[in-house]
Amino acid sequence: MQAPEPESDLYAVLGVQPSATAAAITSAFRARVRELRPDTRVDADTTARFGEVRAAYATLRDPLLRAAYDRRLERMLPSPDRGAAPPLPVRPGRRYAVVLGDVRPEPPLRAGPVRWIPGR
Fold first, then answer.
1. Between 44-61 and 63-76, two packed helices, what is the crossing angle to 10 degrees?
2. Counts of helices then strands in the chain (DSSP H, E)
3. pTM above 0.85, yes or no
4. 92: three-class secondary structure by DSSP
5. Can you say how many angstroms the Cα of residue 2 is from the centroid of all Cα atoms in its chain?
6. Closest by CA position to 49, among listed 8, 80, 84
7. Is the pLDDT of residue 88 over 70?
């Protein structure tokens, strides 16, 4: 696996914010992989971009590597308000499903033997 370049922003490679959750990072990685499909696109540019996406995901999916990358990124980028505390990430609201009334259980899935008839 290729090591990511120190100048590249791994969050920008995946197209997520630095406050993204692990699920959002995984979702963005899968979307990028579908776009770059190495089995259908065989040019050098796509192969290089696919390597960058894989390297970014490998770093950002591991909490320890991500924390180390965030610290390194914080030191590399100049911040006008160094003394201020970083803003807390905004968590999305939870979604609940409310079921009113009787809920009938679904019947069990039944599958019998498959009958093969030659000549059909």
1. 110
2. 4, 0
3. no
4. coil
5. 19
6. 8
7. no
